[in-house]
Amino acid sequence: MNKTDDKPLILTICEYAKAKGAAWPLNKHEGIWSTYINDKWFVALNPHNEPHTVKYEGIEHVVEPFNAVVWYNGWPAGVVDPAGHTMVATSETNEQALLAAIRAQHSATGGAG
What we know:
The chain has helices at residues 9-19, 95-108; strands spanning 3-4, 7-8, 33-36, 41-45, 52-56, 59-63, 68-72, 75-81, 84-87. With 113 residues, it is of the alpha+beta class.
């Protein structure tokens, strides 16, 4: 399992969703939960046991059960699931950059988003 800070990346995304006020538990949220983390990162999380679609940049994307899909500057950047994740690995688009964006947003809002 890919982990960061001894925690699966999917858990970090779920905690971020909770901090932003998503319905809790997340499966109480209707369909996909999605948000812009900042002006570059977008995340769509499917907390249900069936596929759901999200519309991003005018295109519908299927997000598999219990998966999150992330985009960077409008481009697909990764798929995250409970078993791990696959991320694009460039200097700006990688797991550490995504985590830094989540932490920065979380800190900037006093933990509320």
